[in-house]
Design a protein that fits this description.
alpha+beta, two-stranded antiparallel sheet, two-stranded antiparallel ribbon, 1 helix, 6 strands, extended
Length: 112
């Protein structure tokens, strides 16, 4: 692991599961979107849970629009099949009642 830091690698190189992953720098949309979701979740998460960010996620291609906003796809674990199933796609507002109440105005990114 210590050898990783001595290698001459491009910026934003990550070591994931013993593999080198070359990632591009985040675009300006990424930071306010992450802040909006992190702060919104922190306001609603029960005391026994913690909000963490910068976890791996697979994103589909998206086209740039004049008013870029986060789109959130929610999932829940199917206890029978032990697989995740989609429970919704949220564009302007992320409002859920399970696993706890969440209400985040996704359009607020325009103010950040």
């Amino acid at each position: 692991m210590d050898d990783f830091f001595t290698l001459d690698l491009p910026p934003h190189t990550e070591l994931i599961d013993a593999s080198l992953v070359f990632v591009s720098p985040q675009r300006k949309f990424h930071t306010p979107a992450m802040y909006l979701l992190e702060q919104g979740l922190r306001r609603h998460v029960p005391d026994d849970l913690r909000v963490r960010r910068e976890m791996a996620a697979e994103l589909g291609k998206r086209k740039a629009r004049e008013h870029d906003r986060p789109m959130v796809v929610t999932y829940e674990l199917d206890p029978v099949n032990r697989t995740y199933i989609s429970t919704g796609v949220h564009h302007d507002r992320l409002k859920l009642s399970a696993p706890y109440d969440i209400d985040i105005d996704l359009t607020a990114i325009d103010e950040l």
